[in-house]
Amino acid sequence: MNPDLDREALLCLSTEYDHAYPPSTQQEKALGQRIKREKEVGRDVLNEIIEWKFSTLPGRIKRTQNLINVHTDAFIRSVTRRALALPMNQDERRIQELRRIKGVGISLASVILTFYDPENYCIYDIHGMRERYGTEPKNMFASKKHYVHLLNDLRAQSKTLNLPVRTIEKALFKKNIGKRVPIRVSSSN
Fold it and tell me: Is this model's pTM higher than 0.85 or not?
């Protein structure tokens, strides 16, 4: 746990995140509202989620979209509807169900769950793990257990501080991304 991040610091960092990434934040809210309303994700929304998640990785976007596009829209809707209907305390089953869609790994599953329920879910990436635990585990994307562990920790903090899990995770992301040392390129004259 981060003892230096009290409720006020978390709210401040989360707000800084929103201000640093306004189009991303707006798209997240819009997609989240749509998923909550429809209680499922169609192929078009899943493609938008992929573009949101991997916005700086065009090759990853194309590769992941090619994988999910082998499925029919009806299949994707059916899988996501079942996953989102499961109780929140069945995180591993929800993730397992979402992973039935080719191209959806733990990270992408976390985005779907977070957009649907930001009160109880967070986006799984190295920045949150590094900020929370000091480093990310080896093979962190190979097993659901690391994500579920992070969720449980953030949910406990969420309950104590009366903040959404996503708010805490955005703050951790913003704090960690701010620690990156810029790469300096030396020029030879």
Answer: yes
Is 1 inside a domain boundary?
A: no
Number of domains in the chain: 1
78 Cβ contact list (under 8 Å, min separation 6): 40
The answer as to whether 163 is a domain residue is: yes
Q: For residue 184, tell me if it sits in a domain.
A: no
Distance CA 115, CA 60 (A): 20
Give the integer Cα–Cα distance in Å for 128 and 188.
Answer: 37
Angle between helices 73-85 and 106-116 (to 10 degrees): 70
| pLDDT per residue as tens digits for the range 86-138 | 998 999 999 999 999 999 999 999 999 999 999 999 999 999 999 999 998 88
Q: Which residues of 66-95 are buried (b: 16+ CB within 10 A; e: fewer)?
A: eebeebeeeebbebbeebbeeeeeebeebb
